Amino acid sequence: MAFEMLVWHCGRFTTRLEVAGFRLYSRGVSRPPAPDRSPTPGLILGLVVTLAAVMGYTGYISWQISGLRRLQNNLVDRNRRDSLELLRIQNDLNSLAVAMRDMLDNDEPYPLTAWSAQFARIRTDLDDAMRREEQVAVADRTPEQSQYLSSSLAQFWDAADRMFEVARSGKQEEARAQIRLSLQARQAALSTAVARLLVQNNESEDRAAARIAGIYDGVERQVYRFLAATLIAILLTGVYLIRSNQRLFGRLAALSEQRSELAQKLIATQESTLRYVSRELHDEFGQVLTAIGAMLGRAGNQVPEGSALRSDLREVREVAQNTLEKVRSLSQALHPVMLEEAGLESTLDWYLPVIEKQTGIKIRYEKAAEPMAVDGNAAVHIYRVLQEALNNVVRHSGATEAWVRVHSLPDSWEFEVEDHGSGLLADPAKPGIGLIAMRQRAELLGGSVEFSTPDAGGTLVRLQVPRGKPEENAR
Ligand SMILES: Nc1ncnc2c1ncn2[C@@H]1O[C@H](COP(=O)(O)OP(=O)(O)OP(=O)(O)O)[C@@H](O)[C@H]1O
Ligand SMILES: [Mg+2]
Predict the structure, then answer these.
(1) Residue of 8, 424, 460 to mutate, ligand 1, most atoms within 8 A of C-beta
(2) Is residue 356 a contact partner of residue 394, using CB atoms and an 8 Å limit?
(3) Cα distance between residue 182 and residue 364, in whole Å
(4) How far apart are CA 131 and CA 136, in angstroms?
(5) In terms of Cα–Cα distance, which of 276, 140, 274 is closest to 208?
(6) What's the whole-number average pLDDT of the chain?
(7) Which residue has the least CA distance to atom 11 on ligand 1?
């Protein structure tokens, strides 16, 4: 039992050495230089530029649209309504002209006062039209123009009133003369002024149309500029992102390669140290203890049978024999010399029952169909992977049964350790180094290791080692 516990602890010891090796690696090696500048500030800048461009453009478009709306409401619409009122005024002025022509026509049997009702009706309509026109008149009308129209109209109505006064007093001819000399001229002047205003409205409508077309052109140009600026910003940000990603990934790949190289060197160093210590223990201490045992035996033979000294010498010889066995067991556990002398198959035949007895876990061992032909160097790594997988079953799975299988495939050897326990956690609270070391050893062998969940639950560790010349990889 003491021997078995010793072997178990040595198994744990080699695992801890691996742990120490990796921690040494992670602490002892000087840190690689910090990776290139983070791309985050550049990306934030790109985002800010793009957002600023979008916001600036949105502001510009809203401003242009509100300008267009103002132009249309203030100028174009008012201009049209103003022109309608001016046409109404012109129509009324034409009606006055026709009435005055009839009044001057001597064929009419009616007295001139007969037209006063028609004049009054036209006057009401004209006043209404003038009031409305003033409300919608466009801003670029001069005060003199507005003043001229209303005062001319007022003078026309004064003259018309006077003319009807004269007509009512029976002086028909005098009244006609007033129409001819004063009223007709005033009506013509008013008509001309209204026509000029209409022309002015048309011109201002043309100018507004030209300004609207200018705004559309400007907006179109800005759309192209904005699109070009945004595309350039996106392009620059994209190129920057791709380049910094390339740099970061390149650096990561280099670091990962360095880490893997260092880990493999550590594993190799650890194995050679363990092999050396194991041999020293076996050869040096083993020989010394064997010699002591032999000398004690000879010395005991020279002492008379039944004496106290003879029994003391026998006891000391037994102590030396026990120590020799312990030293050999320790040597075997640190580096099973058996691996080199008898091969992996025999070492597993010895090791698995030892683990079984010492942990109480039932191990079902399924051997390969053909004898295992694995090189000594590769055998050490395979042995360590199986040792770590079984240690994990004992420590983490909570299972009482485990399966160890060896399959000989056409191109490779396959080793499996399976348990139906708790299974691997996706994110273990205390990440260890055992699984990483397994991967590194598999890499050293030119093979691979997989961790999966069998159908019955638990954990399945599958190590695949190519046939051929694994020793080349394993050295
Ligand atoms: N057979 C298993 N069943 C259940 N969980 C497991 C098993 N093997 C590994 N694990 C889980 O995976 C984790 C990592 O295992 P790993 O061997 O890398 O580290 P460890 O055993 O905790 O420490 P050490 O570095 O000493 O090996 C363990 O902490 C455990 O949670
Ligand atoms: Mg472990």
Answers:
(1) 424
(2) no
(3) 135
(4) 9
(5) 140
(6) 85
(7) 424
Check: pTM over 0.70? Answer yes or no.
no
Residue of the CA atom closest to atom 1 of ligand 1: 393
Kindly identify the ligand whose nearest atom is closest to the C-alpha of 438. 1
Please write the tens of the pLDDT for every residue from 277-301. 988 988 898 899 999 999 998 998 8
CA distance 358 to 177: 146
Q: Which protein residue's CA is at the shortest distance from atom 8 of ligand 1?
A: 392
The CA distances from residue 190 to 50, 118, 154, 163, 184, in Å, are: 61, 19, 11, 18, 10
**Span 303-327, pLDDT tens digits:** 888 888 988 999 999 999 999 999 9
CA of 398 to the centre of ligand 1 (A): 12
* Closest atom of ligand 1 relative to the 461 alpha carbon: 1
Partner residues linked to 363 by β-bridges: 402
Query: Where does residue 287 rank: exposed (0-12), middle (13-18), buried (19+ CB within 10 A)?
Result: exposed
Distance from the alpha carbon of residue 432 to the mean position of ligand 2, in angstroms: 6
Residue 320 exposure: Cα atoms within 13 Å on the Cβ side: 19
Distance CA 233, CA 174 (A): 87
Nearest CA, atom 31, ligand 1? 428
Chain mean position to CA 138: 57
What is the CB < 6 Å shell around ligand 1? 15, 19, 392-393, 395-397, 419, 421-425, 428, 430, 432-435, 459
Ligand 1 nearest-atom number relative to CA 16: 26
Compute the average pLDDT of residues 53-82. Answer: 85
| Distance from C-alpha of 227 to C-alpha of 220, rounded to nearest angstrom | 11
Partners of 401 in the β-ladder? 362
Outline where 281-417 has alpha helix (H). 286-302, 308-334, 337-341, 344-359, 376-392
3-state secondary structure of 431: coil
- Using CA atoms, how far residue 141 sits from 126, 153, 418, in Å, is 20, 18, 99
CA of 12 to the centre of ligand 2 (A): 9
CA of 436 to the centre of ligand 2 (A): 9
One-letter amino acid of 100: M
- Rounded distance between C-alpha atoms, residue 415 and residue 408, angstroms: 9
Answer whether 169's CB lies under 8 Å from 146's CB: no
On the question of pLDDT at 17 being above 90, the answer is no
Atom of ligand 1 nearest to the CA of 393: 1
Residue 399: per-residue pLDDT: 95
Ligand showing the shortest atom-to-Cα distance for residue 425: 1
CA angle 371, 374, 376 (to 5 degrees): 130
CA 430 to ligand 2 center in whole angstroms: 11
